[in-house]
Amino acid sequence: MKNTFLKIALIILTTINLQVYAQLPVNVTFDEPTFTLTPNSYYKNTSVKDYTIGATKFRYSWDTAYGGFWKSGIAYTNIKDTTNGTFTNLYGCAAYNAYNGNNYATAQDGAVITFSNSLNYVSGFFITNSTYAWKTMKNGNTFSRKFGDTTGTHSGGVYPQGGYPDYFKVVAYGYRGGIIKPDSAQLYLADYRFSSSSSDYIVRSWQYLNCSSIGIVDSIIFKLRSSDNGLFGMNTPGFFCMDNFTTVNTVGIEELTTISNISLYPNPANNFVYLNFESKETSPLTINLYDISGKEVFTEKQDAQIGINNFSFDISNIDAGLYFIELKNATSTKRIKIVKQ
């Protein structure tokens, strides 16, 4: 019993209340009535206007200088152009079509999404390269190098024989109350770091970015990172495309404040895991263990005692991977993640 409880405790600290989250999912497909576009066009608002669907606000900025240009943020679009790989095609995606429906969104480095409800759980979204970024990484241009090139030089010296270990990725960071969350989510849109060049790739299809590790947030910011950088920053075009942005309103469920000083070790773990925490009250707790897809592995009800609580559990019979431990009472939750080796 102690071992099973430990499993649950592990999960409890790792997980957000997925059962509650699953009640009110919001899936933004950019095809809602709010997102009205004529064929082969994109959102353009010269008054610098953000746009909102439900509780989700997509930040957007237009600069009126120099004839006007899209300065920052996220613009929804239905451009179908995988031929033009220059800066004159900022909105097209490498997948050609939206993930589903007609519209998708193109975002710039530093794009921000905010939520009017401060208790949102970001499940994830589908992502792919913009045509501009894809073509540039594939072919190179005046300002950016061709990924995997084995000729010439770069800022670090001569290229290695196998080609420069290039990469391009999106990293999502969550914020709550102006404080950045400790965990992030990332996806490589291009990766040339493999020992064999046959494994190198540049993403052209829609890929799912799981953001469950970020947890409950009131805003999220996207940062692009590339191996190709110069004196003025990243040389790779700072654009990517998204669709089916999914969140869950946690319906007033706050993170558990009666539990503190949580210690979970070792992490990653092979067989046994030890969980320690301090409780401010004696209260019934539900402990859940979930895998990365949200599937429940274990659940159990226990009583936390005032003071230090110690548990140990055997996870040797669980498959390797990322898991979430969730601890919740009647009104709130606390989570941590654990990696089973």
H/E element string?
HHEEEEEEEEHEEEEEEEEEEEEEEEEEEE
**Low-pLDDT sequence parts:** 1-24
Biggest sheet layout? 8 strands, antiparallel
Number of helices: 3
Helix content percent band: under 10%
Q: What integer is the average pLDDT?
A: 82
> N-to-C terminal Cα separation, in Å?
23 Å
Alpha-carbon Rg, integer: 23 Å
Task: Count the E strands.
Answer: 27
Question: Summary?
Answer:
The chain is mainly beta and 341 residues long.
SSE layout and pairing:
Blueprint: H1 2-14, H2 18-21, E1 25-28, E2 51-53, E3 56-58, E4 60-63, E5 69-77, E6 104-108, E7 112-115, E8 120-129, H3 131-139, E9 153-154, E10 157-158, E11 167-176, E12 179-191, E13 201-202, E14 207-210, E15 216-217, E16 219-226, E17 229-230, E18 233-234, E19 239-249, E20 254-255, E21 259-265, E22 272-279, E23 283-291, E24 296-304, E25 307-314, E26 321-328, E27 332-340
Parallel strand pairs: 20-27
Antiparallel strand pairs: 1-19, 2-3, 3-7, 4-5, 5-6, 6-19, 7-16, 8-14, 8-15, 8-19, 9-10, 11-12, 11-16, 12-13, 17-18, 21-22, 22-25, 23-24, 23-26, 26-27
Task: Summarize this structure as a short list of keywords or feature phrases.
27 strands; disordered N terminus; 341 residues; 47% strand; mainly beta; 8-stranded antiparallel sheet; globular; 3 helices; 7-stranded antiparallel sheet
Protein architecture, described:
This protein is mainly β. It has three helices and 27 strands. Strands 1, 4, 5, 6, 8, 14, 15 and 19 form an eight-stranded antiparallel β-sheet that branches. A seven-stranded antiparallel β-sheet has the order 2-3-7-16-11-12-13. The model is unreliable at about 1-25 (pLDDT under 50).
